[in-house]
Predict the structure.
Amino acid sequence: MSDAAFDVQRWRPGPLLPRRDARDGALVFVVAVLCFLACLTALGSLAADRASRGWSSQLSDSATVVIQPRGAESPDAAAARAAEVLAGVKGVTEARALEKEKAEALLEPWLGREALLDDLPIPRLVAVELDPKGPASAESLDKALKAAGVQATVDDHSVWIADIKRAASMTRWFALGVCLLIITAAAAVIGFATRAGLAAHRDVIEVLHLSGAETGFVARLFQTRFATAAGLAGLFGAGTAAAIAALVRLAGGGQGLTPVLPLAWIDLLALLPAPLMAALTAAIAARLSAAAILREMG
Amino acid sequence: MSTDADTFPADTVDAPVLRFAGVGMRYGRSPEVLKDISFALRPGSFHFLTGASGAGKSSLLKLIYMAEQASRGRVELFGRDINAIAPADRPFLRRRIGVVFQEFRLLEHLSAFDNCALPLRIAGGKPDHYRGDVAELLGWVGLKARMHARPATLSGGEKQRLAIARAVVGRPDILLADEPTGNVDQGHALRILRLFVELNRLGTTVLIATHDEDLVARSGQPVLHLEGGRLMQYGRSGSR
């Protein structure tokens, strides 16, 4: 606008902070990258948590029974009878006798193909699926087998489950720890970047301060500015992380990446607070920094 | 120290607008730039603050507008000890002080009009209430045709006049000016002086730090003269 065109009556106060600044771009970039990393870690920890729960659940919802045939009863007949007995126990959803071939296949990695001679007494196995809501105990299975006159050993995987649960719990806590660490680092960097941005506008702060601006007045200016920038950056970072997670979910299906780190669509909702948290962190950092700078100025 | 009928020793003025009592000031651990300064200004008075470069003129002004703190002694503004004023109250006190900074301190991203209106905006004024006053004042300091210009496009003299307009637009109780005529020609210097005198007639206490001996002589106003950080004289400009 030329000076001649300046219309006093139409004048409206201009923004007290410069509209654009190259440093703002750097702040947006840093915050976006950190939000992206924090969101990816959050998704990773959710997936790790789901995977560990899955492992524990799979093991605790099943048991294996090793049949030791007695008398004239053939191993296959003993296994079939045991399966029938076990299927009737409360807390068992399914009991299935495994064929000899399946038992051999399980032993092959340990004994080798050559060792599996026809006359080698291969133990027959019964795979038992337990009701997750009220699983039958090893004792009740053993009691039912004894009552039916079947000699067998019940393995409820309790030895493995304890180890797996411990490993799963560690995985979960580790993922959560890393996630919290990244979020804290992101918050700290947002805080530092905001402080640096604020220090760059020290000349403006000084003029406002010496003209009688209150701390709240100055803080609000910077708070709004940096919260908006960080919020947008957070949106960009979280959006990118969500897009990548969606691609992984779509590409993985049931066989790809997702069985290792199972992601659910609902997990993406966990990213929603990210832009808000980035904006809030920047707003708090801006307010504290502005107050500190004004305190230094007296 | 020489004095005359217009001198105002610190302890002889009733209800002074400004009072220095045994004030010393240093930056960090450096030697004192102001030593044992004592004086008082009556409300509505007009003084020049003179002295060579480095005599402490700007430092003395900084103490008044609370950009620095005295390392010893007592500074009272509007009857209140500056050091005892709560931080939350300082902004309201600063709004009663108009300052023309030596380096102007204009906001480069704002128009001349916005810069001039800044104190009124900070004080919570509504644009409809003050836009006419701002325009009139800018016209008075010769910036009518430059109201929308950014400071970067203004000449040194125009910036100085804008800084002066910003300092006086809120009708402060006390006006401090650090070399306000340093970058303007004689004609504008006299016009600025007239503005200060006019403001003074309306009741504003004026303290102008300057090298401009001619301006001081023309005004006939009392002078506070600093030498090596010490106040050597207060009185009429011709009495030194």
The radius of gyration of chain A is 33 Å. Residues 158-200 of chain A form the longest helix (43 residues). Chain A has a mean pLDDT of 81. The beta strands of chain A are 62-67, 92-97, 124-130, 152-155.
